[in-house]
Amino acid sequence: MDFSQFDSRTASDDGRYMHAKHPATGELLLDGDKPCEVLCRGSEGRDVQTEIAKMRAANVALQDAKEDGADEQTLSVLHKKLVQAVKPLIAGFRNIERGDKPAQAPHDVAWFLDLNMLNGQPGEVSFAEQIAAFSTRRANFLGKSSES
Questions:
Q1: Average pLDDT value over all residues in the chain
Q2: Is a pLDDT exceeding 50 seen at residue 47?
Q3: By the 8 A CB rule, do 19 and 39 touch?
Q4: 48: pLDDT confidence band, cut at 50, 70 and 90?
Q5: Is 46 inside any structural domain?
Q6: Contacts made by residues 104-112, CB under 8 angstroms, sequence distance 24+
Q7: What burial letters (b/e) apply to 28-37, b meaning 16+ CB within 10 Å?
Q8: Is 72 helix (H, G, I), strand (E, B) or coil?
């Protein structure tokens, strides 16, 4: 049996396309008849792990964000932490535009992730939450990668 099909780490570095869903309805988003997709790296990837380590060393990703001196974990604070955590997971976009120009990584990543935020409502999933769920699901990165 060829075990390279289980190399989710290399496939995570290569990335896979996630079909974006409407954050309120969960319907798949289309640009005409083309899927609106985000190229996501997997959380197991070596490149992503290196980026996370750099962010931690720089004390950026996991700081205790406080807003206006508040001590509580507001949805806004949780969203900021989630955005920082998933930024390194986005490698590109397909059929997603910012105004009249195609969205590009890394320039448009923060913009994309801040278009909406988590709100705790059942069935409503922000773009940042979609990226986190997709990138941490190993099944999305199994199968032979380009380096296998």
A1: 86
A2: yes
A3: no
A4: confident
A5: yes
A6: 105/39, 110/83, 112/38
A7: ebeeeeeebb
A8: coil
* Residue range(s) defining the domain that contains residue 42: 8-141
Q: What is the pLDDT of residue 59?
A: 56
Tokens of 126: 């922000």
Q: How far apart are CA 38 and CA 121, in angstroms?
A: 23
Residue 146 in domain: no
What residues have CB less than 8 Å from 135, skipping those under 6 apart? 12, 40, 41, 42, 43, 48, 86, 89
pLDDT at 58: 65
For the chain, the domain total comes to: 1
Q: Identify whether 89 is part of a domain.
A: yes
| Residues 118, 127: Cα–Cα separation, whole Å | 9
Report the 10 Å Cβ neighbour count for 8.
20
Element (DSSP H or E) covering residue 113: helix 109-113
Share of the chain above pLDDT 70, in %: 84
Q: Is residue 148 part of a domain?
A: no
